[in-house]
Design a protein that fits this description.
Layout lengths: L2 H16 L6 H8 L3 H7 L3 H26 L3 H16 L4 H10 L1 H29 L8 H19 L8 H16 L4 H7 L11 H5 L4
Helix pairs in contact: 1-4, 4-5, 4-7, 5-7, 5-9, 6-7, 7-8, 8-9
């Protein structure tokens, strides 16, 4: 890992842990054990560093979620794996991180939302096409519309995650999104959805009461 990549990686870890606004360039230089002069050789200011962190984060998320879908045996398992991954990754994110980004660094926030929108819509469209071919999803739905609805629902959840007063747990928000999504795609395959989401070491993001509420 070169110096620039290390700065981006360590800065992201700090932002995720304590928020964005409260972390200064001094904090980042101390975290890295480097002089501010070296830090500013790579990034002219904090805004440019945040932008680089957002771009790096989005690229990494796309690679990881693409790998998860490649390893899934069908469309339903793809959704389960992505949900489990999202639930695990947001556990260590401070609520103030998203709030700070949206309020104080809106350009980077818009970049994050645009890139996630594009990736989510493309991924869901592919997932729906795959599920229809498998017979796991209904054939009488418009993949483009459903993918855009899913993307907007994801955006609403991201906003809720940034609300420190939210009454919902992070895992519950992710679970309800995917549970709702699968109900829309095909009632006939809910039994298989339940099978994929039984409480195991691999899928601890689900709550037993939620699984039992599925209607077969």
């Amino acid at each position: 890992m070169d110096t620039k990549e290390e700065i981006i990686t360590r800065a992201e870890q700090l932002f995720m842990r304590v928020g964005v606004k409260s972390v200064s360039m001094d904090d980042i230089s101390r975290e890295l054990g480097m002089s501010k002069k070296t830090l500013y050789q790579h990034f002219e200011n904090k805004d440019s560093l945040i932008e680089a962190v957002v771009n790096s984060h989005c690229e990494r998320e796309q690679i990881l979620t693409d790998k998860l879908t490649e390893d899934a045996q069908d469309a339903l398992e793809e959704v389960k794996k992505i949900g489990a991954y999202l639930a695990s990754t947001i556990e260590g994110v401070s609520p103030s991180t998203l709030f700070d980004l949206q309020k104080y660094y809106y350009k980077s926030w818009e970049t994050l939302m645009k890139k996630q929108d594009e990736h989510i819509i493309n991924s869901i469209k592919k997932n729906i096409a795959k599920g229809v071919d498998e017979g796991n999803y209904r054939a009488d739905i418009d993949p483009e519309i459903i993918a855009r609805i899913y993307a907007k629902a994801t955006y609403m959840i991201v906003e809720e995650l940034g609300n420190p007063k939210s009454k919902f747990s992070r895992k519950e928000l992710i679970w309800e999104l995917h549970n709702y999504h699968i109900h829309v795609l095909n009632f006939k395959r809910l039994k298989l959805w339940r099978k994929y989401n039984e409480i195991t070491a691999e899928a601890q993001w689900l709550q037993p009461s939620r699984v039992q509420q599925l209607t077969l």
